[in-house]
Specification:
Helices cover 14% and strands 53% of the residues. It is built from 1 helix and 10 strands, in the order H-E-E-E-E-E-E-E-E-E-E. The structure holds calcium ion.
């Protein structure tokens, strides 16, 4: 029992040091996270074409991934979302197609920057391209976390189209 308590205290102390190191590096916008072992990987993919015309954030259908951080552990989550996208506009228009990855109600880092694809129609038609973002968060304490990709367009007349996507979430032991 005592050994278990000492181990739990050590895990907590290491996580605290890691969190403090993150804060020290962070300032307002720069963050650093270090981990040492990938403990879980969940991968989802969607081959079908989907689109949204919403200018409010919506969940990318099917992108929900649940991750469990067991008692006595602190974890970093690393997520990659890739897809072939299309952000069409009328001639002369500008459209931005936004995508972010959330853990519960918190946006994974870096926060604020969400443009996944964009088009300035004055420079030509938007073509389908592959795009990818990678995001992280943590160290997270023990608990159940829900990861979701969310998307929106800047103009409801110009939908954000994803012609298939792939989402990977890794749970990493925090140093
Ligand atoms: Ca594009």
């Amino acid at each position: 029992m005592r050994r278990a308590l000492v181990a739990a205290a050590l895990v907590a102390a290491v996580a605290l040091m890691s969190a403090l190191a993150t804060l020290a590096v962070a300032g307002k916008s720069l963050t650093q996270r270090t981990g040492s072992l990938v403990l879980d990987v969940v991968i989802k993919s969607q081959a079908a074409t989907k689109s949204t015309s919403s200018t409010d954030w919506r969940n990318v259908p099917g992108s929900r991934i649940e991750v469990e951080v067991p008692q006595g552990q602190f974890s970093i989550l690393l997520a990659r979302f890739s897809g072939t996208s299309d952000c069409p506009v009328d001639f002369g228009g500008i459209a931005n197609c936004h995508l972010r990855i959330m853990v519960g109600k918190k946006q994974m880092h870096p926060r604020g920057v969400t443009i996944f694809d964009s088009t300035n129609a004055q420079s030509g038609d938007d073509l389908q391209e592959a795009h990818m973002i990678e995001r992280s968060i943590g160290p997270l304490k023990p608990g159940t976390y829900v990861v979701r990709a969310q998307w929106r367009t800047s103009d409801e007349a110009h939908p954000f189209v994803l012609r298939g996507w792939h989402l990977t979430v890794e749970r990493i032991r925090a140093d």
